[in-house]
Amino acid sequence: MSEIVKTVNKLKRGLSFLLVTLSVAIFTLLSWVLESGELSLSALEPSLLQSSESASVQRVAQQSAPSQVRVQDAWKFVYEKLPDFPIENNYISKETGKVAPTNTLVGRLIQYHVFVKGRPPNYRFDWKLSLADYLGATPDYLVESVYPGNDVLRSNPMEQDRAAIQSLNRAQRDALVQALVDVFTETSGRGRTPAAGETQQRSNTPTIPQPQPGDAKLLIP
Fold this sequence. Notes:
Structural class: mainly alpha
Shape: rod-shaped
Strand content: under 5%
């Protein structure tokens, strides 16, 4: 009988040791799995973040693409409304070595306002701020290195553009602001291109090709 008891006790001790060993092994395995999972997530986090940022940039680009195209096209409609406004399109292109007829004063003003300063194009107050930059009435002075046309024209048009804006009287500046706001807020003109004979013909008015997607990249220094 005593031998049976001893055998049972040995079995109990053996089972207890086995259970402890299994518990330690399971705990160690779980710890390793959790640690590996954290490491994997840490390794994936930058790529996931980058993918998320890329997706966000793509969404913003898709949402802003129509407005960028319209921004590139808007100066033509401003000249429709202000046929006597200075064109200032006699600058030489770095790429072609010829006059760039579509690089106009209003076009550069719009690019400065929207792309350089990041201001909305449909509010009078913001356009007045941009004109104030040209007039030297704000701390945001014009900077040659980022001024529209600097990277595509042989000579930087900034000073001449500043002089042209400064030569305008108050009524002319108000008319310019109103024309810019109207162009960017009139839904009837969206997607429309000027028809032949629709504007007053002038000897220095160029034949204007349609802008292409990606034209905004020309502003990148």
